[in-house]
Amino acid sequence: MLPFLIKRLATFAATLAVASALVFAVLELLPGNAAEVILGATATPQSLVALEQKLGLDRPAATRYGTWVWGLLHGETALSTSYDTPTALLIAERLHVSLPLALMAMVLTVLLALGLGVFAASRHNRPGDVGVMALSQLGIAVPNFWFAILLILLFAVQLQWVSAGGFPGWTEDAGGGLIEGLRALLLPALALAMVQAAILARVTRSAVLDVLREDFVRTARAKGLSRSQALWRHALRNALVPVLTVAGLQFANLLTGTIVIENVFVLPGLGRLVFQAIANRDLVLVRDVVMLLVALVVLVNLLVDVLAAVLDPRLRQARA
Amino acid sequence: MTALLWAAAALSLVWQPWPPADIDIASKLQPPSAANWLGTDGLGRDIASLLLVGAQASIAVGVVAVGMGLILGVALGTLAAAQHHAGRVWVDTLLMRACDLTFAFPALLLAILLTAIHGPGLFNSVLAIGIFNIPVFARITRSAALSVWVRDYVTAARTAGRGALGITRDHVLPNIAPALVVQATISFATAILAEAALSYLGLSVQPPQPSWGRMLNEAQALMFQAPLLALYPGLAIMLSVLGLNLLGDGLRDLLDPRLSRQR
Q: For B172, which DSSP code?
């Protein structure tokens, strides 16, 4: 396991390094510079020079890249040009909404997918199975932001059970609370979970069907276990490896999906932050938010690989 | 459903019930009628016309983004497989690692990066979705091509003196084409969804060009006055994506030799 872990961590570090170089190159080295983008085409040469000095653009690219990466690793990020606040503080504030949202969506995804997938597999080629597969085809085709709008129409406009958007905060001092905060994130999490659950349900069904054909399941039935006992005690546990692998990869999709859903529900998360940064031409903030999201995607892929190797030792030899 | 999407886009090039950019505030938020089959939006524009012309953006993004992925991805994938078979595994490893790196940048993040510098527009969104498609096709091509390279008839061709380029053109590509066709339909569906999301966020097609995603954004602002406005563009996106996914599933069943033998 150790050689596999070392190799995987080295790949993780290399991927992050190259990704950071790419983000830096796209935002700092392409035609025009950040000062020109921020001030626009009508900027005077004097104002351009002043802003370039403020942003450190008069230094060589390699020095600016090194300073940026060093700051990221130590949590000492540059000041956002529009908020005049270290980007790390802004990002940390917004993570209080985006991370719980992504986690809630992940929990909903796994619960829905496992339930539907196992149900479909246990009723293979019968109406229950066909119904679940038809629903999952629809689920994959529905845009999550449209589903979010439909949820708002039903639960906020028609039934008025929840508000149409916004976030009250996690504490009562902020005017919210734990229950109010979870309630505000429920519809957004459902909208995010729907597509991912549809995909994961198909994977679960396929994995459970494969395991149900194995000899040990036939042996378990021959020993007197009922069909559902064999399914839950033996088949599901062995089907979990591919299911967890796909679920882990979907977490990366959920993280980027929060960008769209936060804008639908007007949630003060990373998605809204990056769009405000684009509107304000705050390239420093855009750079740091994008890098954080890329790093989270790469980290999740690493954790999925390690988890899969822990659950299935054959993968350690295959990948080492 | 897929044919309907293409027919709508083609029809909109020569005819629309009303010019989609025609604003008529006096006729805003009208219900469906003989004059406006699906009603009008918040600016009095005919919704049926907007839907028809909006199909153009979806088709355009799908064709260009999938085309980029196909051309560049297949080139990279066949190169990686040929180099792997020739013993230069390091070339294969390098190319696949570069593809893995691209997976760290989902299309939405790429579009955000490009928009931050160059401003929003259809070109940036097509570029972002297209770049994301390249490693998808590269991986599928490499995997399928590797299995073709070990076949007896390819070994015979090499023994007869055929070069890697000739073998790739005459043997590898025809044999991997079915897998690529299936992936192309699935990627087309994904591209339509991605473009709709980017349009919803204002990062893709810009006014006055209609797009389904931006229609949803505008409908959301009016959902208390006219809830039905949000229904039509969402249905259009859903039916287009569903049709393409079902087409991909059907083609996979048709072109997979193991499933063909079972029939």
A: I
